[in-house]
Amino acid sequence: MSNLEKQLLNFAQEGAEGSSSSVGAHLLSKLTSGNADPKIVTEEIRQRNMRGGRGSKGDPSEIDESIKKAQKEAVVIDETLSKLKNEKDGLLLTIADFRVKERMLVESGRTEEVSAIRKAITNAQNEVDKINGIVPESVAHEDHKKIQSIVSDWYAERQKAKEAGEKIRHAESKLETTPDDGRALGDAIRGQNEKAEAENRLAIAEREAELILNNKTPNPVRDEGVHHTDKETIEEKNFLNRRRSERVAPGIFGLNNENEEMQNEMDVLATGASEAPVQQTSEPATINETSVEEKIMKQELPPLEFTLEPTDDEKNLSRVEDRIKEVATRQAELEAEPKGPFQKSEIGEEIAELAKEMSSLEQRRSKIESKKPLQSAYDVAMDRLWKENEAKRNATLENTNEETVVSAGSAPEPEDDSLLPITTVENEEVVGTPKEGQEAAFEKFESLVENKVTREQVLANIAKLGEMAEARAEEKKVPEGWLRRVGDTWNKIPTRYKVMISAGMIVSGLAVETAAATAAVASIGAGLRFIGGTGLFATFDKMLEKRAGKKGVERSSLTKGRDKLVAATFAIVIAGVLPSMARDYAVEHGLLQKISDFFGFGGAHVEAPVESGEYIQIAKNGDSVWKMAGSIVAEKFPDLSPEQKTYVIDAIKDRIEKDPGSYGLADINKITVGKGVDFGGIFGDKEFMDNALSSAKNLTPEHIANIQNYGNETPARTMSNEEFLNEPLHTTFAPEEVSAHMPQQVIPTPEQAVATPEVPPKDVLMEGVIHEASEQNIPTSFIKSEILPGDIGELAHIETSADAILFTDMDILFGESKFLGFGHTDGINSINWKDPQVGFGGKTVVEILNANPSTIPSEGGRTFGIENSEATSKMKSYLLNVTSMTGVNPNSNEKVVDFIRRASVAKLSK
Amino acid sequence: MKNQELRDILIKELGIGELPEEAQDEIVVKLGEVILKSLTIAIFDKLSAEARVEFEKIGSKGDPALIQEFLEDNIPDMHTLMEEEVRRTLQNYAELEAGGGKPKARGEE
Fold first, then answer.
1. Are A42 and A33 within 8 A, CB to CB?
2. What is the ipTM of this complex?
3. Is the CB of A175 inside 8 Å of chain B's CB atoms?
4. CB of A32 closer than 8 Å to CB of A38
5. CA distance B71 to A570
6. Are A732 and A829 in contact (CB under 8 A)?
7. Number of alpha helices (DSSP H) and beta strands (DSSP E) in chain B
8. What is the pLDDT of residue A80?
C-alpha cells in the first residue's frame, strides 16, 4: 500500500477529516500561510504588485525591488500550484484505485475493509476539493481518449484473432475429411495469416499503451524547482496533461456505469476548480533560476502497466465459447440437411452427440463463470491490473519513503515575511508515517494483499525476463513463432511435470548438487506424452547415453538424471519448434502410469479433469468390476448401444485387470462389499476413453454380431440400462473364462474360433526370436535384461527395443535368405509384410485374424500377405501368441505394427 | 519424497518460501518457460545458415533419428548449452529481484 493510501486510510480509521498531516494539506498550509484565506492572500499579492507597478507614486528603487520580489514570489507560487496539481492527480488516481479495491472487497464480502476504504475515498475527495479551491483547472482529455481507443482496438484485434482461429479450425476439420480441398487449405492459410496479423497488431497496441502510461518520468522542474526553462515548462505542462488524462485507472475507462459515474464526479470536481477566482491576473512572471531546494512533496507514482492479457479462465472460457459456436453451427447444418432413409440413423447419432457436447460445454462455461459470479472477464482483468499497479507503487514508495521529508528551512527565506506567504516547518515531518495506534490497521490492511503483492512482483520480473528473451530472439532473427510455439508446447504439459522439469533445470543451473534432484527428474519423460514428445525424449536420452559410451564413461545415477533432464528439455524445445516431430509414440499408457506411480506422482487418473468422487462405486452384494463400471458407463453414455457399452466396459475391465492395485484391488475378481473402487482415473483419462468410445462407435456388423452371440445366441434387442447391466452376457467376459489364446477385445465369429489354430500358451516364439537374434548377431541384451520399474534409465531402451523386436520377429516369419545366406531380405522388407495391398504391415490385427485365404493357390500366380494361407496362418499364430505372452490385447482398429510394438513395450517393462 | 526435496531446494534458492504453494508453482513454471525460450534462442544461434535450412527440412520429415543426427553434429554439448541458458536466466532474474543494476543487455552473449 502506498504511503498516500496509508495516510488516507488513517483518516478513515480516525474519522478525522482534512488532517493537516496530509501531503495536500501540507502544501496548502505552505501556500496559504497558516489560517489565511488563500483567496485573500492572492488579492494581497495583486494589490502589492499594483502599488509597486509602473506609473505608481512609489519610490522607483522600491518599486523595482517589489517587482523582483513579486517575480520570485510568482515562481514559488507557480511551483506550488504545479505540485498541488500533481498532488491532485495522484489523489484522483488513488480514488480510482480505491474504487476498484472497494468493488473487490464488496465482492469478497469484507465489509469492514469496505467501510474503511469508503471513508478513505471520501477523505481523498475532500482533499481534491480543497486543492480545487486553489488550483486553476486545465482540461486535457486527448491522451485519455487515445488510451480508450487503444483499449477498443485491443479488444477488436482480439476478436479478429479469435475469428481467425475459428476459421483455421473449421478449415482444418474440413481438410481432415477432404485433404484435397484447395479452398479449405486456402482458408486455413488465410486464417493463419489473419491471426498472425491480428496478434501482431495486438502486441503493437499493447506496447503503445505502455509507452503512454510509462511516460511519466520525474523531472527536475517538477520535483526540485530548479532549471525552470521555457522548454521544461512545456514539458511540465505536457506531463501534467498526461497525468490528468490518467486520472482514472486505465482498465476502467468508461467501460461501465460505475466508471462513468466516477469520471463524472472527477469532471465536476475539476470544473469546480476551474471556476475558483484565484487565478493570478498580473503580468506573467519571468521565469528565473531559483535556489529552492524543496524535497519531494509529491508522491511519484510508478507507471501503470497496461497488459490486458486474458487469464487462464478467460482463455478457457473463450475456447468453450468458440466450441459452443461450432457445435451450434453444426447443429443448424444438420437440422437443415435432408434426411434420407440411410442417413437418418447416422445423422441422428451425430445430433445426439452434439446435443450432449453442447450440454457439457454449457456446464463447463457456467462452471468457469461461477468461479467469481460477480466478476466479468473485464473485472478479472481489472483485478489483475490493480494488483500489478499496487505492487509497483509499493515497491517504489518503499524506496522513496525516507525521501518524503519536508526539511525545515529548505524554502527560500524572504527578506520580508509579509511578502512571502509560505511558512516553514520547525520540525521534520515524515509524510505518510502512521500515527500511534494506526500501525495495526495498516498491517491488517496490508496483510490482505501482502502475499499477492509479492507474487505479483516476482511474476512481473519473470514477465520482464520473457520480454528480454523476446527481444533477444528478435535480435538473433529467430524465426517468428518459435518462442510462442515452445511456450504453447510447455503449457500443454501438466503442472506437476512442469514444476519438476523447471526445478530440475533451475537446480542444475544453481549448481546445487543433490542426488534427489537428478533422481526425481528421472520420471519427467512421463509428462512429455502430453506433447507427443516421449519419442523425442527417448531418442535424445539414448543419444546422450551413446555419447557417454563413446567416451568410455560409465554413467552414474546423477549423470543419468542430468541426461534425462537435458533430453526432456530438448524434446520440449524440438517438439515446439518442429511440431511434426511431436508424434506420440506407441508407449503403453499403463507403463507410464506405473512409472509415474512409482515416483509418487499418482498416475494419469490424478490429473484427469474430472471430479474423481463421482466415479467412486461402493461395492454391494453381487457386484463385480464389470457391473460397477457398467453402471457408470450406462449413466454417462446412455446413447451407446448395448454392444457399444459392452465394448467400453470390457476395455475398462481390461485396464483394471492389468493393474488392479491402482484401483485398490488385490484381484479384479475379489471385491470387498462396502469398499469403494475409484474409476475416476479411467473415466478421466481422455485418451483412453476417446479410444474406447471411438472403437465402440466403429464396431463393424461382424463385431456387433459376435458380441451379441458370444455366450448368448439370441439376436440383438433393445434393452434398458437396468436390463443391460443384469445381462448374463457380462459374465462371459470374466477373465477366467477367456481363452488364453484368444484376444479378449477381438471377439471372433464362432466359425473362426474353430478355424483358428491352437497355439501353445508358452513363450516359444519369443524365445525363438531371442535365440535367432542372438545367432544373427543382433544385440539382444535389451530383450534379455530385466527392466525394473525403478530403473527408469532403461525407458529409452524400451521403445528402441520394441522396434528391434518387430524387426527380428518379422524377419523370422518372413525373412528370406538366398543361396548360402547371400542376398538376405529382411522380413519387414518382404512382400508379405510390405505390399501396399496385401502386406501385413498395413493391416489391422482384426483384419488379419478375420482373414481366411484359400489354401488353393489362385490360378496363374502366387499369393502373398493376407491372401496367402500359409503366411496368414503364421501371422495369426504369432499375434495370438503375443497376446497370450504379454497379456496385451489388440484394439479393434489397431494396426498390427502398433500392436506388436505396444505389446513389446509392455513385455519389456515387466 | 525426492520430488518434494527437489522442489524445496528450488523454493529456498528462489526465496519464495513465504508464498502459497500455488504461487510458488506458478513462479517456477513461468521461470521454466523463460529458460526454455532462452534455450530455443541459443540453439538457433548455434546453427550455421546451412544448418538452419537443414533443420527446417528435417522438421518436415518428422523423423526423430534425423533430428538426433542433426543435434549430434550441430549441438555437441547439450548440457553446457542448457546450463548456460539456465544461468543466464537466473542471473537476470536475480538482478531484477535485487532491483539494482540493469540486467544483462538484450542480446548480449
1. no
2. 0.89
3. no
4. yes
5. 10
6. no
7. 5, 0
8. 79
Closest Cα of chain A to B43: distance in Å? Answer: 9
Q: Judge: B92–A468 Cβ closer than 8 Å, yes or no.
A: yes
> Residue A588, Cβ neighbours under 10 Å: how many?
22
* Per-residue DSSP letter, A580: G
Q: Which residue of B has its CA nearest to A462?
A: B31
- A605, A684 contact by CB (below 8 A): yes
Q: Which residues contact A155 (CB under 8 A, 6 or more apart)?
A: none
Closest C-alpha among A541, A522, A676, A685 to residue A607 = A685
Is pLDDT larger for residue A178 or for residue A427?
Answer: A178
Quote the CA–CA distance of A704 and A697 in Å, as a whole number.
10
Please report, for residues A58, A162, B92, the alpha-carbon distance to residue A464 in angstroms, rounded to integers and kept in the order given.
65, 26, 9
Does any CB of chain B come closer than 8 Å to the CB of residue A506?
A: yes
User: Running DSSP on this structure, what letter comes out for residue A823?
Assistant: S
CB A655 within 8 A of CB A691: no
- The pLDDT mean for chain A works out to 61
pLDDT digits (tens, 9 = 90+) for A608-638: 333 335 677 777 777 788 888 888 888 778 7
Q: In this complex, which of B18, B39, B72 lies closest to A573 when CB atoms are compared?
A: B39
Whether A465 and B93 lie within 8 Å, measured CB to CB: yes
The grid coordinates listed for A666 are: 488385490
Residue that wins the pLDDT comparison between A690 and A377: A690
In the prediction, which pLDDT does B35 show? Answer: 92
A161, A198 in Cβ contact below 8 A? Answer: yes
DSSP H or E stretch at residue A405:
strand A405-406
Residue A629 cell numbers, joined: 463400471
CB A330 within 8 A of CB A354: yes
Strand partners, A405: A430
Smallest Cα distance from A468 to chain B, Å: 6
Q: Cα A627 to the chain's mean position, in Å?
A: 38
Q: Are A101 and A108 in contact (CB under 8 A)?
A: no
Judging contacts by C-beta atoms under 8 Å, the chain B residues touching residue A465 are 31, 34, 89, 92-93, 96, 103
How far from each other are the two terminal CA atoms of chain A, in whole angstroms?
59
CATH superfamily name and code, A141-214: HR1 repeat (1.10.287.160)
Give pLDDT, residue A878: 84
Q: Give the pLDDT of residue A706.
A: 77
Sequence spans of domains, chain B: 2-98
Sorted by where each begins, the domain ranges of chain A are 3-136+223-307, 141-214, 483-585, 612-738, 764-909
Instruction: Tell me if chain B has a CB within 8 Å of the CB of A536.
Output: yes
Burial class of A371 by CB neighbour count within 10 A (0 to 12, 13 to 18, 19+): exposed
Residue linked to cell 498516500: A4
Let me know the angle formed at the C-alpha of A695 by A691 and A699, rounded to the nearest 5 degrees: 175
- pLDDT tens digits, A670-699: 777 767 777 877 887 777 888 888 888 888
pTM above 0.80, yes or no: no
Partner-chain contact A465 B92, CB within 8 Å: yes
Question: What residue in B sits closest to A569 (Cα-Cα)?
Answer: B36
pLDDT at A576 over 60: yes
Q: Which of B9, B65, B97 minimises the CB distance to A461? A: B97
Q: Point out the residue among A486, A516, A521 whose CB comes nearest to the CB of B40.
A: A486
Cα dist. A532→A580, A581, A593, A803, A903 in Å? 10, 8, 16, 18, 19
**Using CA atoms in the order A339, A341, A342, A348, what is the torsion angle rounded to 10 degrees?**
50
Quick one: pLDDT at residue A837?
A: 85
Residue A657, C-alpha cell as written in the block: 485387470
A573: nearest CB among B16, B36, B68: B36
Residue A601 touches partner B, C-beta closer than 8 Å: yes
- CA distance, residue A89 to nearest chain B CA (Å): 27
Q: How many other CB atoms are found less than 10 A from the CB of residue A177?
A: 8
Put simply, the answer to whether A517 touches B6 (Cβ < 8 Å) is yes
